[in-house]
C-alpha cells in the first residue's frame, strides 16, 4: 500500500558556495540513494546532484522519521540546508525540472539531469507510488514549460551569451575550445560549448580537481587541466572563454597563435588587452555581451510567470491524484479484509445451520445478504471519513489508516487487510455488490 510523506533537504547556488556543494556530494548520486534507502523507516529515496545543487528526498511514515533519515547526510550542511515538507518538496521538484530554480533561468540541462537521477533511483528500486509519480510529473512539467513557453529561448547567462557571440563570429563546429576558470561562469560557458559538435573541449582551472569535476558533468568528453598548462592549451585553441577570479590577467597576449576568438568574462580582465591587437585574434568583453543578456532576461522573466501558473495547476492535479489513490487504497484494504472475514464467518455459520437441517438456496442467500449488509454498514462511516480526509488534505488521518491496514505484520504478507489494485471487481476480490456500496458512500 503506497503511503507516507515526502521530506526533502537541499543546498543550492542560492545558499552555498560551489565548494560547499562539492563537499555535500561526497557520495555519488546512486550511492546516496542506496544509503538513504537502507535507513530505518525509509520506503522511497531520491537524490539530485549537479554543479549548482545537492538535494535528497525520502518517503517515511511521518516527517520526524524522514528528518532523522536525512539528518546524517544533511548534518554538515548547517544554515545552508533548506528543508521542505511534503507539498513543498513536490512543488520544488516541479520548479527544478522547469528551470525556475536554476542559476540560469530556464536552462535546458537540468531536465536531462532530473531524468538521469530518476533512472538511477528507479534502477536501484528506490521509487514507489509517491516519488515515482512526483518525478514523472516534474519531467512532464519541464517538457511543457520548454515547448509551451519561451522559458528557454535566447541566452541569459554570460557564459551562454559568450558562446552565442562566438558562434556569430565564426564557425564553432569542429573547433578546439578552451574554458579558463571552473567557477559558476566558467561552468556555464563549458555547458553552453558542450552543446556544439566540438573537436575538443578543455577546462583549465587553478585547482585541477575542480576542473575535473566540471568536465565530468558535461554531456561530452572534456579534458581537465591546471593553469600551468595554459601556454599549450591557448596555442591550440580556436575559441577561448576566460572567467577566473584572478586580480591579474592569466592569459598573456603571447599565448595566442593564429586565428582565435576570445571572450573575457572576468572583471578585472583575464586577457591581456594587447591580445586584441594581434592579427586573427578577436577579443570580446563584458560590454559586448550586456545587450544580448538584458533582452533575453526580459523574455524569460515573462515566460517564468506562465510556468508558475502551469506548476500551480499541475501540482493541484498531482495532489488530487495522491489523495484519491491513498484514500482508495485504504478503503479497498478495509473492504477486502472485511470480505475475507465475512466469507469465513458465513461459511462457518452455514455449516452449523446445515448440521441442523438442510438449507434452501433462498436461506443461504439471506445469510449472505445479511453479512454483506453488516460489512457495508460497519465500514460506511470510516469510508466517508477517509474520503473527507483526502478532500481536506488530512494526511495524518490517511497515513494512520494506512498503518492500521498495512498487511506487513502478517508473515505471508496477505493479512486480513491486504490491499489490491483498486476498488471494484476488476483487479480485486471485492464482490460487485460490495464495490457498489463503496462507490455510493
Automatic annotation (TrEMBL):
Residues 306-406 form the Tetrapyrrole biosynthesis glutamyl-tRNA reductase dimerisation domain. Residues 405-441 are annotated as: Disordered. This is Glutamyl-tRNA reductase. Signal peptide: none annotated. Its EC number is 1.2.1.70. NADP(+) binds at residues 181-186. InterPro entries: 4pyrrol_synth_GluRdtase, 4pyrrol_synth_GluRdtase_dimer, 4pyrrol_synth_GluRdtase_N, GluRdtase_CS, GluRdtase_dimer_dom_sf, GluRdtase_N_sf, NAD(P)-bd_dom_sf, Shikm_DH/Glu-tRNA_Rdtase. Belongs to the glutamyl-tRNA reductase family. One of its GO terms (biological process) is protoporphyrinogen IX biosynthetic process. Possesses an unusual extended V-shaped dimeric structure with each monomer consisting of three distinct domains arranged along a curved 'spinal' alpha-helix. The N-terminal catalytic domain specifically recognizes the glutamate moiety of the substrate. The second domain is the NADPH-binding domain, and the third C-terminal domain is responsible for dimerization. The keyword NADP applies. The record marks 92 as: Important for activity. Residues 9-149 form the Glutamyl-tRNA reductase N-terminal domain. Keywords: NADP, Oxidoreductase, Porphyrin biosynthesis. It catalyses: (S)-4-amino-5-oxopentanoate + tRNA(Glu) + NADP(+) = L-glutamyl-tRNA(Glu) + NADPH + H(+). One of its GO terms (molecular function) is glutamyl-tRNA reductase activity. Coiled coil: none annotated. The active site is at 51 (nucleophile). Residues 171-292 form the Quinate/shikimate 5-dehydrogenase/glutamyl-tRNA reductase domain. Homodimer. It is an enzyme of class 1 (oxidoreductase). During catalysis, the active site Cys acts as a nucleophile attacking the alpha-carbonyl group of tRNA-bound glutamate with the formation of a thioester intermediate between enzyme and glutamate, and the concomitant release of tRNA(Glu). The thioester intermediate is finally reduced by direct hydride transfer from NADPH, to form the product GSA. Substrate binds at residues 50-53, 102, 107-109, 113.
Amino acid at each position: 500500500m503506497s503511503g507516507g510523506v515526502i521530506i526533502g533537504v537541499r543546498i543550492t547556488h542560492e545558499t552555498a558556495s560551489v565548494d560547499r556543494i562539492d563537499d555535500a556530494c561526497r557520495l555519488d548520486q546512486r550511492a546516496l540513494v542506496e544509503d538513504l534507502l537502507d535507513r530505518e523507516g525509509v520506503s522511497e529515496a531520491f537524490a539530485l546532484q549537479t554543479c549548482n545543487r545537492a538535494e535528497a528526498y525520502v518517503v517515511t511514515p511521518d516527517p520526524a522519521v524522514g528528518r532523522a533519515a536525512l539528518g546524517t547526510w544533511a548534518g554538515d550542511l548547517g544554515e545552508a540546508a533548506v528543508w521542505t515538507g511534503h507539498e513543498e518538496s513536490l512543488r520544488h521538484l516541479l520548479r527544478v525540472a522547469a528551470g525556475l530554480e536554476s542559476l540560469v533561468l530556464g536552462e535546458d540541462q537540468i531536465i536531462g539531469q532530473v531524468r538521469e537521477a530518476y533512472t538511477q533511483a528507479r534502477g536501484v528500486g528506490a521509487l514507489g507510488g509517491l516519488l515515482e509519480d512526483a518525478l514523472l510529473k516534474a519531467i512532464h512539467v519541464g517538457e511543457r514549460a520548454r515547448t509551451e513557453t519561451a522559458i528557454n529561448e535566447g541566452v541569459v547567462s554570460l557564459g551562454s551569451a559568450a558562446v552565442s557571440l562566438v558562434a556569430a563570429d565564426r564557425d564553432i563546429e569542429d573547433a578546439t575550445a578552451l574554458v579558463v576558470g571552473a567557477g559558476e561562469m566558467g561552468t556555464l560557458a563549458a555547458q553552453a560549448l558542450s552543446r556544439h559538435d566540438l573537436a575538443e573541449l578543455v577546462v583549465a582551472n587553478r585547482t585541477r580537481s575542480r576542473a575535473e569535476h566540471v568536465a565530468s558533468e558535461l554531456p561530452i568528453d572534456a579534458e581537465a587541466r591546471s593553469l600551468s598548462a595554459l601556454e599549450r592549451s591557448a596555442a591550440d585553441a580556436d575559441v577561448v572563454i576566460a572567467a577566473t577570479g584572478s586580480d591579474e590577467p592569466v592569459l598573456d597576449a603571447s599565448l595566442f597563435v593564429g586565428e582565435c576568438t576570445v571572450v573575457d568574462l572576468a572583471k578585472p580582465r583575464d586577457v591581456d588587452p594587447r591580445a586584441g591587437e594581434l592579427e586573427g585574434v578577436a577579443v570580446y568583453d563584458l560590454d559586448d555581451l550586456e545587450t544580448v543578456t538584458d533582452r533575453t532576461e526580459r523574455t524569460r522573466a515573462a515566460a517564468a510567470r506562465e510556468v508558475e501558473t502551469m506548476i500551480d495547476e499541475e501540482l493541484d492535479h498531482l495532489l488530487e491524484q495522491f489523495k484519491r489513490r491513498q484514500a482508495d487504497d485504504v478503503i479497498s484494504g478495509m473492504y477486502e479484509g472485511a470480505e475475507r472475514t465475512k466469507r469465513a464467518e458465513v461459511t462457518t455459520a452455514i455449516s452449523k445451520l446445515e448440521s441442523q437441517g438442510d438449507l434452501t438456496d433462498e436461506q443461504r442467500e439471506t445469510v449472505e445478504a445479511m453479512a454483506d449488509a453488516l460489512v457495508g454498514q460497519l465500514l460506511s462511516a470510516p469510508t466517508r471519513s477517509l474520503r473527507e480526509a483526502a478532500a481536506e488534505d488530512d494526511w495524518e488521518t490517511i497515513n494512520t489508516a494506512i498503518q492500521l491496514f498495512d498487511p506487513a505484520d502478517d508473515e505471508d504478507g496477505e493479512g486480513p487487510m491486504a490491499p489490491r489494485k483498486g476498488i471494484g471487481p476488476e483487479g480485486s476480490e471485492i464482490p460487485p455488490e460490495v464495490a457498489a456500496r463503496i462507490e455510493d458512500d
